[in-house]
Amino acid sequence: xxxxxxxxxxxxxxxxxxxxxxxxxxxxxxxxxxxxxxxxxxxxxxxxxxxxxxxxxxxxxxxxxxxxxxxxxxxxxxxxxxxxxxxxxxxxxxxxxxxxxxxxxxxxxxxxxxxxxxxxxxxxxxxxxxxxxxxxxxxxxxxxxxxxxxxxxxxxxxxxxxxxxxxxxxxxxxxxxxxxxxxxxxxxxxx
Amino acid sequence: xxxxxxxxxxxxxxxxxxxxxxxxxxxxxxxxxxxxxxxxxxxxxxxxxxxxxxxxxxxxxxxxxxxxxxxxxxxxxxxxxxxxxxxxxxxxxxxxxxxxxxxxxxxxxxxxxxxxxxxxxxxxxxxxxxxxxxxxxxxxxxxxxxxxxxxxxxxxxxxxxxxxxxxxxxxxxxxxxxxxxxxxxxxxxxx
Lengths: 191, 191
Hints:
The structure is a homodimer.
Chain A: H1 2-11, E1 13-14, E2 20-21, E3 29-30, H2 32-46, E4 53-57, H3 61-72, E5 76-79, E6 91-98, E7 103-110, E8 119-127, H4 131-143, E9 146-156, H5 161-167, E10 172-182, E11 185-188
Helix pairs in contact in A: 2-3
């Protein structure tokens, strides 16, 4: 997605350790018009797939999933990281390993909102080590629903998450793929 | 907002201690078409106010803020509860008291995204004790921006948050006001 790549180049910031910050438009301040184009791009990719629900994990995926659901005209569901009063006791769970915190945590979706007839599109902001999407897949699998595909806004192709998910048969698409970050310079994957 | 009140009556669930669960359409599973109508309702209320940014707090406010920003065609900003790599070190902070956890926590917004020229509309899903909106107001005040108003989807009018915020001069509007919940029956405030 050309416009997304341009925004990453002009407004993204590269920190140490290959961290790409896109908090100016994607995960702290949100450019809603860009998010709408992102949602529309996912819709164009998967509009023939009879998607019934968009699934993401809190926090950074929620705005993207919302605008994606808007274009698909289907409900959005976000997995919760913490137990809360808003969440039923009876949940499907996925396990996610956090490399920054070096521990596993659980994400949960109420069993009321996932059914075996559902056809699910997972969306998220970043794909790096693939842990969040793996956890979301565990939730979908536990419910018996069909996981159609996963769409991410930015894939760090130099980390192994995307490769591992695809090797396991998942249809994973990225709107922008970053091949490498060298000396602060971002190189996109050629399509 | 008539349609919202109908959805609360048909799909909301009342638990013990006056807890109203609306996780079927507002804060776990999201009905994006309804959220769009909610965003449009806030736009109609404040469209003359030259709003430059929509501000909310993670997690439950994000989808509502996103659809509100979509109608205003302005950026959305969500305050973060946890320190994260996505957040700058230099932040405006607000303090929020959690009655469930019985302790204060901080919410933060990067100083890069709030300026004294900004005219801010705060949005959130619920207004009960008013702590989240108070914390967001502290952030706006610290930045020197103008807090135009706060729009909430559901106000629990039997809790004191709305009254206290209005007594302090804030323009606070709710799309649905709940006067009381008695024996599981929801009574809306008459407009």
